[in-house]
Amino acid sequence: MTTEQLSLPPGWVARESSSHPGSIYFFNEFSRTSRWEKPTAEDAALPTQVRASHILYKHTGSRNPVSRRTNERISRTPEEAIAGLESIQAKLAEDPSKFEDIAQAESDDSSFKRGGDLGKFGRGMMQKPFEDAAFHLAVNEISGIIQSDSGFHIIKRTA
Q1: Per-residue model confidence (pLDDT) at position 3
Q2: Sequence-separated contacts (24+) of 34-42 with Cβ below 8 Å
Q3: pLDDT band, residue 31 (cuts 50/70/90)
Q4: Domains of the chain
Q5: pTM of this prediction?
Q6: Which residue has the higher pLDDT, 89 or 135?
Q7: Start and end of every PpiC domain (predicted)?
Q8: 3 state SS of 31
């Protein structure tokens, strides 16, 4: 079965599985990811890299609950973290241009120094919930509250 026969989106190729002879899997040459399900045109439309900024609120249940901004142990509960980010969402709804300033003043991630800027990253480089949100945002779009092992985030895709 050739790629033409499968009509795969650009960057995707069909390969035969070495562990399951006779079974075909699909490999994305751009993102270096593979999967069993045939990719769709929508999959091809997703970028292979994005640039994003974020505001991270860690909480007592976060992985490594220490603020990189203050170097202090985090004492806020998950509920307090969500409430804090909801307040930030309200501020951003009024003025989205304040994202970087708020990240510098509020984020518990070391990226606070850069206004939350994480730079460019590809698939598989971030925790899955964070990655999925960042890759599905439009440029300059701001996410809702996203939960990861690191805590709760508000993400802004910048490129």
Answers
A1: 41
A2: 38/6, 38/8, 39/8, 39/9, 39/12, 40/9, 41/9
A3: low
A4: 3-45 (2.20.70.10), 49-157 (3.10.50.40)
A5: 0.74
A6: 89
A7: 47-159
A8: coil
